[in-house]
Design goal:
196 residues, alpha+beta, seven-stranded mixed beta sheet, three-stranded mixed beta sheet, 25% helix, globular
């Protein structure tokens, strides 16, 4: 019985130490890092999101923001494919172009408190479910640059993500079928032109 009590106590102690041995960040942007509707897609993103091209995305839950993470281990930013989704939150119903999770986000144990890690934010149309589905289904998507940020330390407040995050734009990605039709049409025009 005493062995079981000792083993249980050690397991609880290790779990609590592990829970506090991770960095933390505040998953929110600021007015200096707003998300805007793209101006390079002919205004399609603005129309889909009921916004104005070049201006902050509209208020509401039409878009979701996702916080992506990779442990620090290289001098250069990792590719998006090497990053893990840590948390997602809908865009603010109160402020255009803003997202804010009510809780701070804890990194995996691969990042100690006060240690740097790589982060990035992606946005997608909420109705598609996730970034990849929105990208492949012709929804509105966008992503920030990938940046390194020193996380909050144990006993210290979480680091605001907005200290390193820069604003980015959301645009409509053409559906694969529309792309295929466009390519087939161009190929047909090329063949007709070659025959003449």
């Amino acid at each position: 019985m005493n062995k079981l009590l000792v083993i249980s106590s050690l397991a609880v102690a290790l779990a609590s130490v592990n829970g506090y041995s991770q960095g933390t960040v505040v998953f929110a942007n600021s007015s200096a890092s707003l998300v805007v509707c793209s101006t390079t897609d002919g205004g399609q993103a603005a129309a889909r999101l009921s916004g104005v091209a070049g201006q902050a995305t509209p208020k509401g839950t039409t878009l979701t923001a996702g916080l992506y993470y990779a442990p620090d281990g290289s001098a250069t930013a990792p590719e998006w494919s090497a990053m893990t989704l840590l948390s997602s939150t809908p865009f603010s119903a109160l402020s255009a172009g803003r997202f804010s999770s009510s809780l701070s986000v804890t990194t995996p144990a691969t990042t100690a408190p006060g240690a740097p890690a790589w982060f990035g934010v992606r946005a997608w149309e909420t109705s598609f479910g996730n970034y990849d589905a929105s990208l492949n289904g012709g929804g509105s998507v966008g992503n920030s640059s990938i940046f390194k940020l020193t996380t909050g330390a144990a006993g210290a407040p979480p680091t605001p993500l907005s200290t390193a995050l820069q604003g980015f734009s959301v645009s409509v990605v053409p559906e694969p079928s529309a792309l295929a039709l466009g390519i087939i049409g161009l190929a047909g025009l090329f063949i007709i032109r070659r025959r003449q």
